[in-house]
Amino acid sequence: MDGYMTIGEVAKVKQISIKALRYYEKIGILKPAYCDPDTGYRYYKNEQMLAIDMIKFLQILDIPLKNWNQYVEPTGEFDLKGLLRDGQIRAYEKIGELQSCLKRLQLAERGIQDTEKYRDCDGFYRREIPERNILRREIKEGLSSVEFHKKLSELFELAQKHQLSANYPSGMMLDVEDGTFTYFVYVEVYENCEELPEYKCIPAGTYDCLRCPPKSIMRAAELYPEYFAKHAKFTVVESDCITSPVYFQEYPVELQLTNLH
């Protein structure tokens, strides 16, 4: 048929599957121009190739195909300008998401590199740690693993809500002030977000460190009795010690202490 292509020819030319074309027909966004009543063969007009390009455009930008009809006028005309406008908005959103993802990858890589330098240390050691931005929430002493990971997930969701690049390392914190202990769960973020009540900046400095099993922060006073006796107000950080390659089993944490005041 002159001016028409079979469904197989369209699939080959536009590099999509026949199954996808049948799906577009099923949801009503691209119906064949002609369907042979005897054979059931589907044919598409050349002019419909642009519509396929627009559908692929929606998919690249993660715009739901169900939104297709909002660009179709009652007269059947397609609002290409509207799609391009919305496409640009979504493209900028995706750029932001990718930039955030890149920051998270860089943050995670930095954490692994820093951790690997001290993986063979035995006993106490000192190391320089750069300034860190974190989000944290208070937790009760003796929190279960389920509740801990629930709190951690809430912080990741909070970071996502405010378009912050949260990633590992994460862990627990302890604020000590005149004998009062307050525990927190935290995640590190790339950005400064001091407008959030959960935000805290941990300054750069020389930290006294010790590798321990998870949740050793709960008995930090036993591990560092001299430090606790000497300082009245300070913070202890328990950070994940994730290295590469990763074995999906219990890994150590690093307790970090410095006088922050």
UniProtKB/TrEMBL annotation:
SMART domains: HTH_MERR. Keywords: DNA-binding, Repressor, Transcription, Transcription regulation. GO terms for molecular function: DNA binding; DNA-binding transcription factor activity. PROSITE patterns: HTH_MERR_2. The gene is bmrR_1. PANTHER family: MERR-FAMILY TRANSCRIPTIONAL REGULATOR, REDOX-CYCLING DRUG-SENSING TRANSCRIPTIONAL ACTIVATOR SOXR. SUPFAM superfamilies: Putative DNA-binding domain. Residues 4-66 form the HTH merR-type domain. This is Multidrug-efflux transporter 1 regulator.
